Amino acid sequence: MEKNPPEKSPSFACPDDKKKQDADRSPSPDFIAIDAKSEGDHEAEDREEDREKVDEASSDLDSSLAKVSEEIDRFLSTLFTVEEKSNPPEIPNHVDQFCMLVEAMIAKYDSGEVPSKWCQVSEEDASLIEAVDRISKLTNALGEFPSESNYVSSHNRTSTVLHRAMLLLEEEFRALLEDSRSGDSDPGDLRMKQPSFSSNHEHDRCVLPEPDSARAVNFPAYSPEVVSNLNLIATAMISASYDKECYQVYSIARRNAFEESLNKLGFEKVSIDDVQKMQWDSLEGEIATWIKVFKRCVTINFSGELKLCEAVFSDHPSISDVLFIEITSGVVLQLLNLADAVAMTKRSAEKLFKILDMYETLHDLIQVIDSFFSDECANKLKSETSTARCRLGVAAVSIFCDLENSIKSDTGKTPVPGGAVHPLTRYIMNYLKYTCEYKDTLEQIFQEHQKMEQSDGPDAETETTPCPYNNNQTPKPSPFSVQLVTVMDLLDLNLEVKSKLYKDLSLSYIFLMNNGRYIMQKIKGSAEIHELMGNTWSRKRSSDLRQYHKNYQRETWSKVLGCLRDEGLQVNGKVSKPVLKERFKSFNAMFDEIHKTQSSWVVSDEQLQSELRVSISAVVIPAYRSFLGRFRQYLDSGRQSEKYIKYQPDDIETSVDELFDGNAMSMARRRT
Amino acid sequence: MQRSDYRPKGKEEDLTETVSKKQGGTTGEERRAEQQIVGEKKFRQSSRMQEFKRRRWSTRPSVLIDQSITRKTIMTSICTVRVSTRADNVKGRMLARRYVFAYRGSSAPFASFGRSILSIRRDQVHSMEGNHEASSLELELESFQKQVADRFHDLSAVNSEDLLSLSWIRRLLDAFICCQEEFRVILFNNKALLSRPPLDRLINEFFERSVKGLDVCNAIRDGIEQIRQWQKHLEIVLCALDSHQRTLGEGQFRRAKKALIDLAIGMLDEKDSGSVLAHRNRSFGRNNTSRDNRPPGHFRSLSWSISRNWSAAKQLLAIGNNLAAPRGNEITATNGLAVPVFTMNSVLLFVMWALVAAIPCQDRGLQTHFSIPRQFIWAAPILSLHERILEESKKRERRNASGLLKEIHQIEKCARHMTELADSVQFPLIEEREAEVRQAVKELSQVCEATKDGLDPLERQVREVFHRIVRSRTEGLGSLTRANNPE
Lengths: 672, 487
Prior knowledge:
The structure holds two protein chains of two kinds. Chain A is mainly alpha-helical. Chain A is built from 26 helices and two strands. Chain A has four domains: 120 residues, no CATH class; 165 residues, Exocyst complex component Exo70 (Monooxygenase), CATH 1.20.1280; 136 residues, no CATH class; 110 residues, Exocyst complex component Exo70 (Monooxygenase, Up-down Bundle). Helices cover 72% and strands 1% of the residues of chain A. Chain B is built from 19 helices and no strands. Chain A: Component of the exocyst complex.
């Protein structure tokens, strides 16, 4: 505002002319047009008069003001002591003089002659405020004598001057609110823009807010000088009973400023309908901004706004409360709108995490609502916030429970080649791992949801609590962990069905082992899931896995080992060569076949792979070695022995180490 | 969930069983009499149920209302209302025919309603076996039609003084909430049918429309806030010309006049929102040149929840888009449920339209077309209300109003009167004039009080409508997905 051109016309005039034009143009209710015109005319006349008065009065303005003020004060004190309203004293000439002086001061402001314009409290500002206070008292005092025509006409005069002063103050108040914010830029900028403290700064008159944290976070970004001026004007307007105008200007200006600050952070209002149509990627972006904005409001903006209210209306704490609520509760409702809209979008798995983020954000808000808002308003906002949060919770529960459906509906008939980890297992486990990063929140959501269901449900008492305490030590499992176990059980069930798709029983065990191991590893990798699933469950899983392992061994290797048994080799107490040859032949054939097929099978978990190989070697190699040791002698050395003893024990080990490589070619290479 | 789970286990079934056992041995005449008793009993029970539910929600605070129609209640109501899911073609055709009768039987008084329907049926059912099973669904749907019609008959009985008053709007919203709740119960009771085409599509469309209604609710909430802003101008007028002031001086009149101008500018309803914003800016006092140089976007509306390019008129068009009465085959294929869906769609559209008509909001427009066939028993009251409101909007003094709410009109009238008075006064003020001013102030303060008292409950109710729509949609979509993914 210091940029105002000096030739600027008095500010009264232009808006009124504008108003007139606008009013004439618009098809508005006719009372406006009439009014605007007449008001404009009035003001124009006044302005002319003002000009003359300014010229007359400005010369001895400063010197006479002090003297006249004294006279006025004296007159006021006599008026206060008048007991008989019907017989008041004569009105001194000073009243008229004083009015002229005040008008001259106002005119000076209007013409832009006062350069600093409230960026700091100058001497002139202070004397204007003082004069306004005096004229307000004078107006009230004169108004006490409605039957005295002199008094009535003086009252007309002073009240008009008072009104003009108030218009000026109102305008200055708004200008300060709107223009002297340094924006949300860095604090250094703020200092630069404001003029430095002047020597006549009136510390005693204004309550300076300590700009400690406000300076750091820079919201709402008014310098202390501006705040003290705002306080000065507000106090003057309120004491002259122009409080409503003051509140109105303040409320509008701050609301706009607050909203602007949200826009600067990238927040845009979106209708619920639009949110439903939005692509998830762009909605995700909106949500990210929303969270940022919300957090900022909760941590910075609300407290900044509250401080500003308290500083500007320091003498009227109840008003500052009301204004603060007016300014911020709309913001809260606006922000909640997106939460409502998102909770209503089509459910899908990928939305869970953002929804949980939003849920947590609202949770944070509920925690601090009481510290910002007074009881009644806090309750309203709290209930709105809880409702929105509850909706997000319901959405989260339903998305999470929808995992069940996505598992159930995964009924593909093509087995994964090589018995490898199924994509469904990967998907579900990784999803659960992410989900469990929100463990505490989800626990809370499910708890709340269960409470809701129970209070809703038809037979909550009888059925939904199947004796949770079998002994006193085991607490009832949380509803979330119950759901998690349900999902895991469903996954197991699904995998079992899928394992049946393999014609080779051994391969189906490998498949189960692979998936089981993957699940175990994921659970071990996440403390949260591990805790939720519990040790018992993990032990059960491990023993299942061991069982699969055993089954595999039995299925693949028992026949092979059968070839290496002593039984049946001896005919009439002697080792039968043909039977022995047959045994070697079939061992070789079986082993070749197993090597060929199972080296194409996949065990990607290294540990599992080596466990399998070790366990196979541990069974097969000693048996083979001892078989070889005992019966090799019965074969003729040379060609025959080479023909039947295809593998040395070391070869077996090498071959076993090639199993589960997922490499169908390994055998072919070896053969050549 | 299997429908059979919901089969009544109490006396109701016993009675029905006796009836069906009897059927073999009794004459047709007796059987029909029995049927009638059963039918009426069920009908009474279900309407008692609804009465009960209505009382429940109306007496509980809004947070509790969220759960007030608890599953328990609905479960119980399911037990009283037997629903048949088996719809063979014959019955379907029957249904379609019967609904047309239902619309036409508009003049039948409530008590005899059930009977008259049954007697119509008597001619048609005659030799058809097993048809009595369907009766409770049919009765449920017929009773819904009747309820909606009754509510809107009540609303349309309003005199022109009270039409579009705050209290009338609140009654309108009450009616909406009741209809919505009954509709919700119908959906709940017939979950199994919802996922079958074409009903699934119809229901999905309804929910899409209702989501659009949510934005209207938000815009209306902003509109209410706007009226509150106007009130603040009026309060300044009242404060300036307060009765406690012994002398009304020129300054006070100037103060009042400024507030009145600000009010008038604030109340302008202009299509061009840019100029409205410019006005609004000025409405808070004088301008100075520095402010005129600003980009126009600097002064935003006070709307909180609605984006800047949102338009109430477009939203209403979107709600009404493709809304058509169900065809006979659609009614047949949905066991008649297409009818309440259409009913609720129309109620939604009308209520949202009326809200937009009454309350200021962004880009109002009342060109929405209502195509409701007259044979629906609720069509007449809704269409007549629509016509009356439209007429109101065309009245000369209301044509440029930013909302047709009666209280807004009163504010306008009072403000105009006040402005005229303030303009005509001369100082010193003569006694006669002063008395006139004081009288006008009194009137203004009464209007102010009345509006103030009505806005808060209205705002709460609009919010309640919002919550109800959300809840009903969540439930409805929930049961649609659940039906698609059976356990």
